[in-house]
């Protein structure tokens, strides 16, 4: 659980570094709310790969996997469990 | 012509080979031909044939090829192709009608990527456009416009076109209006009987360009306006893209015609219109007896540092679909694209809706010469073998 909370915190921190608002809810769709432009998804993919040492390819490259802190965290957990 | 083998500093996976191929002729005007060298499933090198008159050092060209690979191709994340429609029509044989049409004088090649044509292709072209126009006008709140050809460069500036697609735009200029300029130009021209090599030193104006696609005319038209409701605009007009050496027959032209449909309003309206046009276009392809498919696609971003990010987000969000029709047993061409833009153009052109917020938009463009070309590839050049639905319409 500690790892999971740490992962979420890291994801949240990365998003906050890239938006003008000071808070973001874990279930908030950062694209739909207009907090980031669509191209930010590439930065999220690279961040997840570098931060968690996983490879994001093929079926993982679904937009829904990157909409919220929660969804990114679920993707990370799934990838880490498969390592 | 000299040839040079370029060893890529890193191999390009086969899935990204098309992204490399569509960039190579834009890397340098010295490149006359290229061939990819493959080893164990990836592209490891490129054999280039260079123009002997190009004058560019082959090491410089090789360095540029590696730069485009490193900066624009390898950062891309290939997504598996996703097909959203396949024509129920099956076809095994295709005709390469272009040489025969040129021979007969039906098709006239007047320059690089510039092709004209006579009957029966004029009637075929008109018939296909008539059907596409009817699809556009069947949409709610649809209206048609005809635009001038020239587009102010300021229109493309508003949304950063030149930063994303520097390879495509063709500028329109003229001699600077000044008596001294005109006189010195005429004196030089009279003496040399040819345009001076430094002509553009006397052409300071770059206010206009040729439109790379038609929808920008519509966003320009409604710039700064508040729309009273959802709106659909359709227009047919000429579009121009510098396609380097990629120009081919009627398939890829520098100078071509688009039937455009633009949707402006709520995001739901734009999405609904795109779906409606796709469904009607698929039904039309079937009625025309054309085989093909529609899949998720991306624009040809070039040079920009965000190229990989733009392509990935465009594909992941399925903002672009292309209607692909085969022209031979192993090759298809895109004859139409179906796009959603989110609020991008609403923000860029300050077009607002009833709620005061930026409108969402989408657009569909059909390349009419390409559609004619795909039709001829599948049905042949003899109208006697064309579907009744077309020949009846043509009279």
Automatic annotation (TrEMBL), chain A:
Domain of life: Bacteria
Coiled-coil parts of chain: none
Database matches in SUPFAM superfamilies: ACP-like (SSF47336)
Protein name: Carrier domain-containing protein
Gene3D superfamilies attached to this UniProt entry: ACP-like
Domain (Carrier) ranges: 2-80
Source species: Streptomyces glomeratus
InterPro entries attached to this UniProt entry: ACP-like_sf, PP-bd_ACP
UniProtKB/TrEMBL annotation, chain B:
Gene3D superfamilies membership: Bira Bifunctional Protein, Domain 2
Residue ranges annotated for the Aminoacyl-transfer RNA synthetases class-II family profile domain, each copy included: 237-383
Chain segments annotated as coiled-coil in the UniProt record: none
Source organism of the structure: Streptomyces glomeratus
Protein name, per record: Aminoacyl-transfer RNA synthetases class-II family profile domain-containing protein
Organism lineage: Bacteria, Bacillati, Actinomycetota, Actinomycetes, Kitasatosporales
PROSITE patterns xref list: AA_TRNA_LIGASE_II
Family matches, as InterPro entries: aa-tRNA-synth_II, aa-tRNA-synth_II/BPL/LPL
């Amino acid at each position: 659980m500690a790892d999971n909370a740490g992962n979420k915190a890291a994801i949240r921190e990365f998003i906050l570094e890239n938006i003008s608002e000071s808070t973001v809810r874990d279930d908030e769709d950062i694209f739909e709310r207009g907090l980031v432009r669509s191209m930010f998804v590439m930065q999220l993919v690279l961040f997840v790969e570098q931060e968690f040492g996983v490879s994001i390819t093929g079926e993982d490259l679904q937009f829904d996997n990157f909409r919220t802190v929660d969804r990114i965290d679920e993707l990370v957990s799934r990838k880490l469990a498969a390592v | 012509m000299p040839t040079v083998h370029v060893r890529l500093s890193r191999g390009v996976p086969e899935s990204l080979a098309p992204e490399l191929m569509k960039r190579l002729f834009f890397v340098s005007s010295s490149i006359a031909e290229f061939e990819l060298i493959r080893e164990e499933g990836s592209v490891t090198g490129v054999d280039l044939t260079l123009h002997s008159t190009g004058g560019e050092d082959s090491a410089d060209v090789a360095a540029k090829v590696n730069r485009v690979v490193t900066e624009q191709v390898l950062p891309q994340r290939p997504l598996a192709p996703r097909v959203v429609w396949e024509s129920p029509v099956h076809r095994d044989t295709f005709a390469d009608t272009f040489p025969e049409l040129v021979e007969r004088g039906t098709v006239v090649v007047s320059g690089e990527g510039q092709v004209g044509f006579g009957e029966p292709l004029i009637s075929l072209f008109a018939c296909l456009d008539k059907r596409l126009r009817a699809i556009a006008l069947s949409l709610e709140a649809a209206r048609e416009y005809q635009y001038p050809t020239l587009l102010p460069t300021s229109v493309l500036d508003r949304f950063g076109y030149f930063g994303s697609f520097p390879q495509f735009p063709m500028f329109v200029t003229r001699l600077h209006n000044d008596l001294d300029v005109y006189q010195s130009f005429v004196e030089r021209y009279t003496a040399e009987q040819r345009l001076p090599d430094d002509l553009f030193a006397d052409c300071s104006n770059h206010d206009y360009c040729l439109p790379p696609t038609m929808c920008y005319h519509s966003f320009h038209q409604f710039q700064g306006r508040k729309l009273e409701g959802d709106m659909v605009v359709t227009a047919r007009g000429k579009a121009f893209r510098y396609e380097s050496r990629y120009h081919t027959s009627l398939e890829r032209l520098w100078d071509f015609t688009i039937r455009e449909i633009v949707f402006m309003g709520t995001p739901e309206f734009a999405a609904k219109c795109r779906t409606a046009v796709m469904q009607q276009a698929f039904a039309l392809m079937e009625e025309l007896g054309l085989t093909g498919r529609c899949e998720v696609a991306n624009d040809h971003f070039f040079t920009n540092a965000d190229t990989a990010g733009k392509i990935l987000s465009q594909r992941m969000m399925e903002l672009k679909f292309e209607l692909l029709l085969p022209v031979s047993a192993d090759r298809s061409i895109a004859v139409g694209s179906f796009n959603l833009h989110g609020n991008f153009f609403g923000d860029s052109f300050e077009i607002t809706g009833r709620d005061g917020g930026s409108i969402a938009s989408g657009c569909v463009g059909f390349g009419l010469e390409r559609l004619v070309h795909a039709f001829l590839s599948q049905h042949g050049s003899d109208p006697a073998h064309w579907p009744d639905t077309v020949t009846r319409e043509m009279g």
